[in-house]
Amino acid sequence: MMKIKELDYPAAKQFVFRSLTAKNQCSFELRKKLKERGASAEIIEAVMADCIRLGLLDDQQWLKEFVRSQGAKGIGPFAIQQKLMAKGIDSATAKWAVQQGNSTEIQRESIQKLLNTRYRHLSIENLKDRHKIAQTLQRRGYSFDLIREYLDK
Fold first, then answer.
1. Cα 67 from Cα 145, distance rounded (Å)
2. Domain definitions of the chain by residue range
3. Among 2, 29, 57, 94, which residue is least crowded by beta carbons within 10 Å?
4. Are 153 and 115 a contacting pair, CB within 8 Å?
5. What are phi and psi of 111, to 5 degrees?
6. Cα separation of 16 and 51, whole Å?
7. Burial class of residue 57, CB neighbours in 10 A (0-12, 13-18, 19+)
8. CA 147, CA 150: separation in Å to the nearest integer?
9. 64-86, pLDDT tens digit by residue?
10. What is the helix (H) or strand (E) element at residue 61, kind and residue range?
11. Buried b (16+ CB within 10 A) or exposed e, 85-117
12. CA separation for the pair 16, 14 (Å, rounded)
């Protein structure tokens, strides 16, 4: 079995800086990546503290941006919450972030946009099409109540 060489502070810091340059990430993702690369807990915390102090890492801002970008892609609140939890964000924080950044009005706009673009060829009057639209919107993470609101129009 191959032993992973422990990452020292400068190498860990350089890795995090390169990672943040490539894409904005939350501290949990970066901690996980550093741990996988063999950094000790002390080094991980020191690097995270430096990034926060330098303003390179802001989990609250990352959460807002993640929820906004996912919502803009037509992904519903339940699916966004599941994605956040898959990234290691605790359930309460994920739920809070989705509630803050994905209002019912934004969800309505996203559903309307999907109905006007992707599903414009389907008829809401046709039972088979209604069922297909409802299933797809549920898989995207929208609540059944909100879906029903649009299908009953």
1. 21
2. 7-57, 59-153
3. 2
4. no
5. -65, -45
6. 8
7. buried
8. 5
9. 999 989 988 888 999 999 999 99
10. helix 59-72
11. eeeebeeebbbebbeebbeeeebeebbeebbee
12. 5
Sequence length of the chain is 153
**Three-state DSSP class for 23?**
coil
- Residue where the block lists tokens 């191959």: 2
Longest CA–CA span in the chain (Å) reads 63
Does residue 62 sit in helix, strand or coil? helix
The model's pTM is 0.74
Instruction: Supply 103's token pair.
Output: 């209002």
pLDDT tens for each residue of 36-63: 999 999 999 999 999 999 999 999 999 9
